[in-house]
Amino acid sequence: MNVINAIPSPVRLKAISAPGQPEPTPALEQLYRGFEREMLVPLWTEIGDLMPVNPKSRASAHLWHWDALVQLADEAGRIVPVGRGGERRAIALANPGLGGRPFATPTLWAAIQYLMPGENAPEHRHTQHAFRFVVEGEGVWTVVNGDSVRMSRGDFLPQGAWAWHAHHNATTQPMAWIDGLDIPFAHYTESQFFETGRDTLDPGEYIKPDLSRSERLWAHPGLRPVSRLEDLPVTPMLAYRWQDTDRALNEQLTLEAEGYEATLSPGHAAVRYSNPTNGRDVLPTMRCEMHRLRAGAQSRTKREVGSSVFQVFDGAGLVTVGERQWNVRRGDLFVVPSWQPFTATCDADHASLDLFRFSDTPIFEAVHAYREQFDAQ
Amino acid sequence: MNVINAIPSPVRLKAISAPGQPEPTPALEQLYRGFEREMLVPLWTEIGDLMPVNPKSRASAHLWHWDALVQLADEAGRIVPVGRGGERRAIALANPGLGGRPFATPTLWAAIQYLMPGENAPEHRHTQHAFRFVVEGEGVWTVVNGDSVRMSRGDFLPQGAWAWHAHHNATTQPMAWIDGLDIPFAHYTESQFFETGRDTLDPGEYIKPDLSRSERLWAHPGLRPVSRLEDLPVTPMLAYRWQDTDRALNEQLTLEAEGYEATLSPGHAAVRYSNPTNGRDVLPTMRCEMHRLRAGAQSRTKREVGSSVFQVFDGAGLVTVGERQWNVRRGDLFVVPSWQPFTATCDADHASLDLFRFSDTPIFEAVHAYREQFDAQ
Amino acid sequence: MNVINAIPSPVRLKAISAPGQPEPTPALEQLYRGFEREMLVPLWTEIGDLMPVNPKSRASAHLWHWDALVQLADEAGRIVPVGRGGERRAIALANPGLGGRPFATPTLWAAIQYLMPGENAPEHRHTQHAFRFVVEGEGVWTVVNGDSVRMSRGDFLPQGAWAWHAHHNATTQPMAWIDGLDIPFAHYTESQFFETGRDTLDPGEYIKPDLSRSERLWAHPGLRPVSRLEDLPVTPMLAYRWQDTDRALNEQLTLEAEGYEATLSPGHAAVRYSNPTNGRDVLPTMRCEMHRLRAGAQSRTKREVGSSVFQVFDGAGLVTVGERQWNVRRGDLFVVPSWQPFTATCDADHASLDLFRFSDTPIFEAVHAYREQFDAQ
Amino acid sequence: MNVINAIPSPVRLKAISAPGQPEPTPALEQLYRGFEREMLVPLWTEIGDLMPVNPKSRASAHLWHWDALVQLADEAGRIVPVGRGGERRAIALANPGLGGRPFATPTLWAAIQYLMPGENAPEHRHTQHAFRFVVEGEGVWTVVNGDSVRMSRGDFLPQGAWAWHAHHNATTQPMAWIDGLDIPFAHYTESQFFETGRDTLDPGEYIKPDLSRSERLWAHPGLRPVSRLEDLPVTPMLAYRWQDTDRALNEQLTLEAEGYEATLSPGHAAVRYSNPTNGRDVLPTMRCEMHRLRAGAQSRTKREVGSSVFQVFDGAGLVTVGERQWNVRRGDLFVVPSWQPFTATCDADHASLDLFRFSDTPIFEAVHAYREQFDAQ
């Protein structure tokens, strides 16, 4: 015979006088004690929180200044070593609304990673999807399944689940970049696997090519190698270079100026990093895009299901998220929680405001739960 | 000029001596104060929790006895009215590992719903996907977008997002059933919308047909109405009747006895409720199945990413989940957390053990994060 | 060194005076001789045929009377044996517009097959997709990959590419049915493979079950065996029974009478035989449907890309195809060529007109070339 | 009352003594007369042709020399005007096995198109899919839906169904290129629509940009405009430039030389022109690729369902198709019929053999009828 539930119940129920709830009575109190004993919670005490008219995010609209991040990362560079166990000198944004956990939003992780001259971050792999984005600097190579990928300003490096990877700083300067991962989503849904690899790569693996092999194979517009015809869930391209991104954004604005439809809205160009094997998002859980507003232009005000993290890549402007508003400049990171209205405006005295964005949208699209809405302006 | 971050930081960091973490020093303490001030958390203090070798669920393997649930629901029936605001007399399983919240698992809601003779649960709709499963009783009709659906023992009633629905007990007996929803997932990912409908339906809408219109249109094996050719994300069939489910399970076991491949493993038959427009899961976020083990048969021991809730529909048996083990009987509900090994065995003196199961597997398949593993036995 | 083109040219060109063509001159005649020598043909002499404003089918609208077919098949039954080499006593419809070839339409094969008491049609397999439809009679079993499938009036038996199959008449009466295949399409596109199997099955394989194993596993509405979760290009159900088809059609008409949307147009019910693994057509190249017009009802006049073959299953009515019009009755077969307008009307003194239809539509949908158009009436 | 079948039957049947066929008798002759009268053909007289063990193509392996084509096209340029009615000065390959029709293979059209200095080919559109490939020359612009596309050596210009298009030669030299279309497939399946547009474009539309607007929007590796997120059945990129193709092929051979997997087989690089919205073929009915064999390299010998047309873009080599073998050089076109083994070898004294290829493979993949086989060498 088995004895069950021999643990103290975490359920605590209190009869209160409130709309939609039964009037407090001794009988109700007794019922609630029974619920607690049997690990039960009624809908009627929870419905306001669980079934709101539209999403009310626990996460806050919040801004992190790049200068402050880099300064703290640099201090960490001097006193915290990189190695097995801690694995990475990565310092994550902790959304003020999420209880001090290293979660930029309920689903997204965003961190500054920092590597001192000559340092190596040891090889490992995990099922969380990841990417790197470089707002400034260069000189680190990320080695993914043995393929060395240069990191330079403006480059976007996606890295799908379960790929071995290590980092090496081949210069005499520290380098910072941001890591984006779906760590909170994998944590919440309890779907993570992790494996450590070699502590150090062979010196011969720290080669420093201008282009990774993945780019030499894949980064040709509209062309696929006939030797690689599978539809892959994650992109096989390990780097999307700034030169290409910049040109694509410029062309959209020029086409618009010539009178053709190319932009999202007047003065607002945007490209999505995509998987050349299927035209879809680079990673199954994260959408990654670069947006450019020309001088004085303003984006349409949009709400959408799910959350985004933005980093200012260049320029300066004004950003409004729900009831918050900030002037932003290069490197600044901010968060747009679910269903909060978002607008960005490029300062009139800057050529453009370039915003790197990543979001959890593919999760919602995959389960048919995505909604968006444009507000009148 | 804007002032940011004028709220107290929720981040609390403590330098400790531990593997993979930097040695506590005054400099480290000072760095941590800086992190707290700027709402930052380093990976090295969190990696053990966030990046385990495999999923370590916060949820517990847990069993709820049906008798206890029904007794409490019946008491609630006598003292808690059903109406607008509370919306439903639904009493949810609260997993002991999940802090007293009404979450059976991190992603799934499971509740007993109870309706007294003549009662109406008012009309509403929400983006959370839902289903009803009837372990015993009959006499309630669920009205979905104006289509009356009878509920009888063994019936499975899926109900996709954003469909108007109300319940009516047309008998002189109370009736209980279970509701399954993706409420915790929608809550966590902040993707919920909700709308109230009419407080009471017209009496003429409480018709009591043997089959809903949805079944008359769709419940014909392999046949689609040519007037309805869209690929729908949720099944258009509002009821899957026990008679069909039972026959399908029996045929699998009979085919196995005749020497043909039909079962999952010896003595273990299983059917999945499916969407006839695309052959996929009935709901984008929940997989729903009925399993039957014949007398003495044992399922293969399986671990998988994601969580399940089971209800015993009939028979009796022994269930092992991780380190827990229970004898189960009709109506009992239990939870299998992510990556915990699960085995079920039918008692030798029962004809069969029938287990209704629902899980969050479609979410993981949609984002390519699903894994499963069969353990040697 | 190789000598090429040492065969007489099949090209014959004639300079003529016609719109869009160059004026005949000696120089043009000389040019045409050069084209002939080098196996070339100019667009300008062919464009009218190859690039019409809309499809002009070479196939004719044509009707075959069932009585005549059965009588000839019966004569063949007495003088033409069934066996290896000829393989089947199948007599195909030869569209008058297609040069005497056994092609009902440019892409579709339709034949009456006839099996005398006790006869066996030997086992073979081929990449052409096939189905059987039974307008009358019973007593033949088709054995598909070892699974015996009963054939009775109204049953539809799809059989995808490369499945072993044989037929056996287990009664003392001859039996006729129709075979539908994509033989002309496979012939034209040159994609056929064929293999002979055993000349006779073991007597033990000629079992006569009421339901095939495929039906016992699959023919349960909305339920899939968890042991078979692949998305298959062809349906795994080897028979769709008349009882189900008839009930589904009746329900549509009853729902319509009750005021609900269920039919294609007033008085016109239709079901499509579908693949339960993906909700799509039973076969990748052939769409198969059953249509029912109630007494006096008329279908909407429709043109579509691609061709159809119809067989009258029951009732009587008037059918219009392009400029042809026929009174039709049980068993009659007729063809609707590409883009010819089609209308059917049930006689007022018959309860219904039931029309079995198959078409090549999936081919056009697969390559995004499908169009349809409804004519004003 | 209607009289049917009042036309002479095209069916002609002859009783002969042959394997698999019934012995000729007067009764059989009489049966055949009945078949002829009723427009019927038995399987047993046709099965050898219709159901072979594997595809036996009616099309021949055949070679067309570019020099001869260009010379005849040039003569046509002098005596045959371009204009409405004839529409294009296109001269099509007529496969010797296909009865003198302008069909390179049963499904594919390949023609040399020729435009004299200053000439315009008038605007039209059709549902046949098309592309242009330029083996030499430049100076013609193709205007697709108002977007001017430059044509230069090595460029590939796909153009999906129903797009308005015209050509203009802006130079003082004639220019030749090849057109590939699915005209024979659309003709056979009877799915063609055609519309004439303006006879001449406005002079302002004959702009001569280096890059079309489609390229400026789309030709950026791995980047999609966020303003264009639909999954399109045909590629939105109107030109794939030789510079990109050449670099992609070179990278594959260099990667192979460095020891990495990148080529199809040793010394054999290949890229497929793909649709950036879904990673699939540029056109739903035609696969288009560029292959490069380095000096002395030989491709694997391959058979496949469906037919291909090749044009030698550069280099020289030896080509074997079934029992035919040819030495080929720049511009030569040849055909590989269904299931005939194909091998290409680059001459040892040329740097490479570059072969442009198009085939009907997407049709077979779409209906699950594709097979391929590599022969031992």
From TrEMBL, chains A, B, C, D:
SUPFAM superfamilies: RmlC-like cupins (SSF51182)
Entry keyword Signal: no
Gene3D superfamilies from the UniProt entry: Jelly Rolls
Positions of the Cupin type-2 domain: 113-179
Alphabetized GO MF terms: dioxygenase activity
Keyword set, alphabetical order: Dioxygenase, Oxidoreductase
One Pfam family per UniProt: Cupin_2
Protein name per Swiss-Prot or TrEMBL: Cupin
